[in-house]
C-alpha cells in the first residue's frame, strides 16, 4: 500500500509541477506591441505587479512540487510539507485571483474609475494572459488534490483507523 501512496503522490505532484510551470511560462511569454492612434504601445507581463506575483508564485510552486518528491512519506518532514502545501495553495489562489482581477480590468475597464478597456487593442496579449490564467486555475485545482491526498496519507500514518 505504501508503494501505491508513493506512486500516486509522485504522479499528483508531477502534474501539479507541470501545470504550475506551464502557467508561469505562458504568462512570461505574453507580449505584444501595437500602435494606438499613432502611439507605439507595448504590453508585457512584467509591467504589471500582479502578473509578476503570478509568475513568481507559480514558478515557486513548480519547483517546490518537484523538491517535495524527495520527502519520505510518513516522516515528520512530510507533515511540514503538508503545512507548506496548504500555505502554497493560499499563495497560488491569491496569485491567480490578483492576476484575474487585473485581466478583468484590462478586458472590461472600469467605468466608475474612468479606466478604459485595453484588450481591444492588444488581442494576442490578452488571449495569452487568459491562457496563463486557465493554466493557473488548473494548477491550483491539481494542487488542491495534492493537499487532500497528502492530508489523507498523513492522517493514515497518525491514526490507521481503517
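Q: What amino acid sequence fits the structure above?
A:
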Amino acid at each position: 500500500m505504501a508503494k501505491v501512496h508513493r506512486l500516486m503522490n509522485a504522479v499528483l505532484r508531477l502534474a501539479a509541477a507541470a501545470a504550475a510551470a506551464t502557467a508561469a511560462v505562458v504568462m512570461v511569454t505574453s507580449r505584444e506591441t501595437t500602435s494606438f492612434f499613432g502611439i507605439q504601445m507595448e504590453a508585457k507581463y512584467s509591467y504589471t505587479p500582479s502578473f509578476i506575483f503570478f509568475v513568481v508564485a507559480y514558478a515557486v510552486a513548480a519547483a517546490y512540487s518537484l523538491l517535495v518528491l524527495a520527502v519520505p512519506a510518513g516522516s515528520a518532514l512530510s507533515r511540514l510539507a503538508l503545512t507548506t502545501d496548504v500555505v502554497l495553495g493560499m499563495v497560488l489562489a491569491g496569485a491567480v485571483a490578483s492576476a484575474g482581477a487585473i485581466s478583468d480590468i484590462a478586458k472590461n475597464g472600469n467605468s466608475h474609475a474612468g479606466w478604459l478597456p485595453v484588450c481591444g487593442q492588444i488581442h494576442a496579449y490578452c488571449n495569452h494572459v487568459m491562457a496563463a490564467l486557465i493554466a493557473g486555475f488548473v494548477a491550483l485545482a491539481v494542487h488542491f488534490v495534492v493537499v487532500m491526498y497528502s492530508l489523507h496519507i498523513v492522517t493514515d500514518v497518525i491514526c490507521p483507523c481503517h
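Q: And what stands out in the fold?
A: Helices lie at 2-28, 49-67, 76-108, 123-158.
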